[in-house]
Amino acid sequence: MRRRLWLSIAACAFGASLLAAAGFASPTQSGPQSTFVGAKTGGTLHINISASDVDYIDPQLSYYVPGWALLYTTCRQLLNYPDRSGKAGTRLYADGATSLPKVSRGGRVYTFTLRGGMKFSNGKPITARNYKFSIERAANPKMASPAGPFMGDIVGWNKANKSGGHVSGVIASGRKLIIKLTAPHADFLSRAAMMFFCPMPTNTPIVAAGVNSFPGSGPYYVSSRTPGRTIVLKKNRFYNGRRPHNVNEIDVNVLTNQDTSLLQTERGSVDYDLGGHPGSQDAALGRKYGLNKKQYFVNPDISTNYFALNNLAGAFKGNLKARQAVNYAMDRKSLIATQGAYAGHATDQLLPPSLVGYKNANIFPFRSNITKAKSLLGGKSLNVNLFEGGSDIRKARAAALQGQLGRAGIKVNVTPLSTGVMYRRCGTKAEAAASHFEICDVGWVADYPDPFDFVDVLLNGNNIQDSGNNNYAYFNSAKYNRQMEAANKLFGNKRYTRYGNLDITIAKNAVPNAFWINFNNRDFIGPKTGCWTFQPIYASPDFTLLCKK
Amino acid sequence: MIRYLIRRLLWALVLFFAVTVVTYVIFFLIPADPAQRACGQLQTQQCLEQAHHFLGLDRPVYVQYGKFFGRLLPFDFNGLAHGHSPIKMPSLGISFANRQQVNSIVGGAAPVTASLVFGGAVTWLLISIPIGILSALRPRSLLDRGAMMFVLIGISAHPVWIGLIFLYLFAFKVHIFPLGEYCNMINPPVGTSCGGPVQWFYHLILPWITFAILFAALYVRMIRANVIETLNEDYVRTARAKGAPESKVMRSHVLRNAMLPVVTMLGMDIALGLGGAIFTENVYDLPGLGRVLRLSLDNFDLPTTQGIVVFGTVAIIAFNLIVDLLYAAIDPRIRLS
Amino acid sequence: MALLDVRDLKTYFKTDDGIVKAVDGVTFSIEKGRTLGIVGESGSGKSVTCLTIMGLNAKRNTITTGEALFKEQDLLGMGMRRLRQIRGNDIAMIFQDPMTSLNPVHKIGNQLTEAVLLHQDVTKKQARARALELLKAVGIPRAERRVDDYPHQFSGGMRQRVMIAMALINDPDLLIADEPTTALDVTIQAQIIELIDQLKDDFNSAVILITHDLGVVADVANEILVMYAGRVVERGPKRSIFYDPQHPYTWGLLGSIPRLDRPKGGRLASIKGMPPSLINLPKGCKFRPRCPHAFDRCVEEPDLRNRVEERRQLDRCWLSIDEKRDLRKATIKGQEAVA
After folding, report:
1. How deeply is C10 buried, as exposed, middle or buried, from its count of CB atoms within 10 A (0-12, 13-18, 19+)?
2. Of B38, B171, B192, which is closest to A230 when you measure between CB atoms?
3. Between residues A514 and C214, the one the model is more confident about
4. N- to C-terminal Cα distance for chain C?
């Protein structure tokens, strides 16, 4: 997923791997964390979302990570991510289902058995029909839902998306829910944990503006929302699952001012800001509160930022030495220093260390080696164009990069754009083919914890389309394409080892990009807030666990 | 008078057209596609096509403008054809970003901005009138020089800077005032921590002062100059020659005339203030039109942007008309013709 | 007994360039029912004299000495409250430009009733009736309708009538008119002067008429005061001033009046030169630099005293009476070029 918090998926998933069998540990290990020892229950959390509002709080429409961090507390998908931190928090477990589904017909049919006795927050029971209804609601053209890419491979979904009505590939029968796919896509289970699949009462209105409150299936439910002002979540009295719920109510204020919000958090009138705090404050916060102690937390994001090098046309096309020169001239540590205190860790590979499958290798130095860079270029100089986005920290790193590469004889011309426009233009094949840019400052966040989501999505040449590309390097090597597709057919540790090696091989031998940082999530909570747990999938604290002291 | 009003209204319509057409044109010149926002990162062709159609972006620009205008009129031609009432509520459309009715988005934000701007206007008058008059009565005194210093600072310092300093000093360091936030006078949204007239007032004190400082500074200068000038007028001498006490001279003769320009300036400055309110709203977390406008631009949300443009245009036109009528009412030399 | 008795009045203004001696020792008096004309060019101090008497000068940087006894009370030493009781009530003043002297945003009726209510304990209705009475007295046609009009709805002449009405509305003992016709055209001038004269009789007031134009006071004044550079240079009954003027400045003023008995084609005499700076006044006779007849004695300032048979006529010139007679004729008739 792009660093900009938009979700993406590998819709065109390849291969038939069963992620289910692969990375899952037994339910006891990957289930929800027991509540903290001595955690105080009750009270109200005050959360801000600075500088933005959620687009919708309707699960079939919501497409924005802070919204998902909230909906995570209200939804009981068949499979869910545990309320745990670290790698454990990235392993799916059975939440609405009794266990992992039975997979048949070569990976095309998934049969789930639902737990009994589940209830919505209005006391009504949750059955297989509710799960089916959600899928059909998302399909209904009146909703104009963005769920298409994530549900489109369910049999009959696309037809329902055009004309409404039932989705023939979803069958609700007693306590069983059967989902048929048009092709054996192994990542379906990860997709099924997305909010679009949140079970909903069958009388939920089907309107394009979505609902602003609905009965919840999780430990909490959305009690009300005033767009542009507030969202209120309340404890679900009828929840009988094993997920925790410490506070009684979560009051969210949206569109707050980041600076003011920080003052409020320090004072304690606000517990946490989903919109973050000003980057200039990190050094001071770290000094004052220490790292990962009581209030200030630094956790790795499952993401990598890199400078995509245009392999399709321009100075870097077919010029391995030039691309290597960029990697040697770049001073990763200096670049990171421009991003504020505790910004992240230097890297020279695509996979982030917090992702299963990552294997470390020392490919390029983290400090500049200008001599080596110059010699690779043979003393020649290059003129390249860098497309950069609009924020202050982006401008800071662009300027630093410009200086670093300049010393090796690579003259960088920075084209400042708004971040959205930058991504759009970098993703347009015609722009790359005309070499309007040689370098693009991009980032990628995991949609779900599998190396496929990085390697294939970003480097498989078969993905390249006319617009909306994520393969910003336009890297297309038949050899490596085959190797990626082969790796995608594997399961378990073999899969991860193969991907880990492939990552290193491509980074060392093909050098399609210049990777530089794995960003951290830097979070600050108020003095009255406790029970901090960082949920890596939603890149936020787990609100079911957060408590008031 | 009636003819004057009709002429003004016709001009207003022309102005309205011009402003909304220009907004549309600018929007469509921007190299960004609101449909992309709806399709997030993946942006499959199918999703983009659906979004374009849903948002109405697959029609030509003039058709979109025509639909926008039709929604805005209080006449329902469709309904007329089907035998329903021909009157409908004018609608500003539906937001591209979150599909809410723009009417309710603007309707929720407008009272906030109005609270800030009108309350701010009262505040700046309360500050500037006494200081301006006293400075004029005692030119070059300590009070006068102090007032001019205040004027200099007030004009030079940016409201955002002033606002952040105030927040830090008077809301964070010393807890006299609240740390930003807006409290609805009536019907506070569920989940906010305050509401009611007292809280509304209390939360607006710092924003009012922040917003008012720039205008107060300008008005002190203007009022001071006007009063000094008026004090030298012949009719003031006549009033004194009639034996009027100084208080009556000030009230009836000096201020009555010196304040006339303040009335027209007030009208123009409140209109200006609508724009400048964005900064104050941003610092103090006030959910007003400034915030909505900024977001709608970030999100390429044409209907909301257009909605605010419409609202702002109508408000400013109406306001200017009221000010002109008021001016004619208080200055007998002005006759509307 | 004199109604107003001004003795050695001096008004100095402190400025950045020096002390401006606007009025430098002025003495005169006026009795009930009489008209005094004060004549002089711009800067002679005629207006400042009357403003000082009324206490209407700015207080800062102003030095005032001397006495102005009104009904034996010194106006100059009086407290503000008492002075305000007198202003607009016992002594009234009208000014040069009636458009700027009336408040443009108040109806003239209100401005008139204001004058009444400041000094008389009557109801608003009674004050308004009085206002109407005065408007009719000054000759405003359709006064009942016009009383609710604004100043800009009146012509110049009408406005000045309103000013006069406002001044007389409380039956003042003394009316001071500071250049009341200067801003009006010639035909209206005569009307206004006639009106003032007539009302003086009707209301039994005294009038001080300030002007730079001797022709204006020719009809109505009883006594004339000629001022130059802040001083009185000649004073006396009207007949004497017109037919037996003793001061060369007065001759110059008289010579510059267009007259029917002057030979046609002859040029009007003018007084050469400019009035002196009131900061750096010349030594000796202040008129000496401009006087065509100055001689060696003039380096000593002449005193103001009676030098002729008419005991009420005073002048400030060293020339002998005979010399004056001879030189005067030439100046006034304009035959002798002014050297």
Report:
1. middle
2. B192
3. A514
4. 44
Position C158 in a domain: yes
User: Per the CATH hierarchy, to which homologous superfamily does domain B106-330 belong?
Assistant: MetI-like (1.10.3720.10)
- Whether C20 is covered by a domain: the verdict is yes
Tell if the CB–CB gap between C106 and B238 is shorter than 8 Å.
Answer: no
Residue finishing a domain among C203, C221, C239: C221
* Nearest-angstrom CA–CA distance, C281 and C289: 11
CB C227, CB C23: distance < 8 Å: no
CA distance A485 to A186: 13
Q: For residue B110, which phi and psi values (nearest 5 degrees)?
A: -60, -45
Q: How are beta strands A249-256 and A44-50 bridged, if at all?
A: parallel
What are the residues facing B165 on neighbouring strands? none
Task: Considering chain B, tell me which residue range(s) the CATH 1.10.3720.10 domain(s) occupy.
Answer: 106-330
> Rounded to whole angstroms, how far apart are CA atoms A307 and A472?
9
Residues 194-213 of A with CB under 8 A from B: 208-210
Interface partners of A (3+ CB pairs, < 8 Å)? B
Is C59 in the same domain as C140? yes
**Token pair 């070059």 in the structure block, residue:** B140
The distance from CA B53 to its chain's CA centroid, rounded to whole angstroms, is 35
C252 and C189 together in one domain: no
CATH number at residue C123: 3.40.50.300
3-state secondary structure of B131: helix
Q: Are residues C176 and C288 in the same domain?
A: no
Domain count, chain C: 2
Please judge whether A149 and B282 are an interchain contact, meaning their C-beta atoms are less than 8 angstroms apart. Answer: no
Q: How many CB atoms lie within 10 A of CB A269?
A: 16
Q: Does B161 touch chain A (CB under 8 A)?
A: no
Cα-to-chain-centroid distance, residue B129:
21
* Contacts with B, C 221-250, CB within 8 Å: none
Residues in chain A: 549
On whether residue C228 sits in a domain, the answer given is no
CA distance C161 to C157: 6
β-sheet with A44-50: strand ranges across: A220-226, A230-235, A249-256, A44-50, A272-273
- pLDDT, averaged in runs of 10, over chain A (549 residues): 36 30 37 59 93 91 89 96 89 92 87 95 95 96 86 92 92 94 80 93 94 96 94 95 93 90 92 91 94 93 94 94 96 94 95 91 95 93 93 92 95 90 90 94 83 89 87 96 87 85 96 96 94 91 93
Residue C216 and residue C255 share a domain: no
Give the global pTM. Answer: 0.79
Q: How far is A461 from chain B (nearest CA, A)?
A: 16
* Whether C195 and C100 share a structural domain: yes
Is residue C50 located within the same domain as residue C192? Answer: yes
Q: Is B133 in contact with B262 (CB distance < 8 Å)?
A: no
User: What is the C-alpha to C-alpha distance for residues B273 and B259, in angstroms, rounded to an integer?
Assistant: 20
Verify that C108 and C168 share a domain, yes or no. yes
Residue C276 structural domain: 248-332
* Per-residue CA distances from B127 to B203, B213, B217, B262 (Å): 19, 9, 9, 14
* Domain presence at residue C338: no
Q: Tokens at residue C201, please?
A: 């009789």
- Alpha-carbon gap, residue A155 to A132, rounded angstroms: 13
Q: Which CA distances in Å does B61 have to A283, B22, B28, B64, B104?
A: 50, 12, 8, 5, 25
How many CA within 13 A on the CB side of residue C271? 23
Strand A296-300 to A93-94 pairing: unpaired
Q: Do residues C72 and C153 both lie within one domain?
A: yes
| Assigned token pair, A496 | 């991860």
Q: Which residues from A are below 8 Å from B38, CB to CB? A: 144, 146
The C-alpha atoms of residue B243 and residue B221 are separated, in whole angstroms, by 30
